[in-house]
Amino acid sequence: MSDRLAARVMGKGGRTIILLHGFGGSHSTWTDIQPTLARDATVIAYDLPGHGRSLDYPGAGPATLAAKAVAADLTARGIERFHLVGHSMGGAIATLIAMRSPERVASLTLLAPGGFGPQINGELLKRYANAAHASELGSIMDEMSAPGFSTPPKYVLGLAAVRGVSGQRVKLDAFHGIIQQDGKQGEIPRDAVAAFSMPVSMVWGTLDPVLPFSQTENLPGNVRLTKIDGAGHMLTVEARSAVLAAIRASVGAV
Q: Which of 70, 120, 207, 208 has the smallest number of Cβ neighbours within 10 A?
């Protein structure tokens, strides 16, 4: 068991961008995003606690632990200030990091983040956590996307390889019960987000079947919302250009 987080590091430069994947994902979530950002920045894509190469991270499960783990790992790397990007569960974790250490976060970009409303499609996430084969996983990933969207095979196969590691599906099934209880998720106080002084950007698909777009209602005035008409939950694949544009706008605003 290791108390160090695994991560894929690309690029170099004065700015550091941190990428946090969603539930059941890994650093491979950012396969077509990280290299582009790394042209002019250092970009770190983590395997969050209990996922991928960080499968055996001690105490993995709660988002609060993941937030502390990422912050501690960045300190160990000598990185004190950084731009945060998080998708789904990773968005909730990124927000918690910003709440705990706002002085360290240069900007915050949230992609269909967890924690902004009680509704969550727990049944769909449970099937996603327990998918054992690439064909089953691909079908569920399509279901998490906009109607009619077909997930490119490379994403399905990459995630299937991670799921094939002994203990991964068992771990995800246990996480599922932490993320949601009786079809509801924990909520991040909106007044905490309103207090952020760093640029905050949010991207959300109007047809998200996991975390409904209605959770963008009554956002604090300091949150810049990008609405992706017709997109589902898998924004890093479905709306890569919009995601890259949002990240660059946040990073460039500092």
A: 207
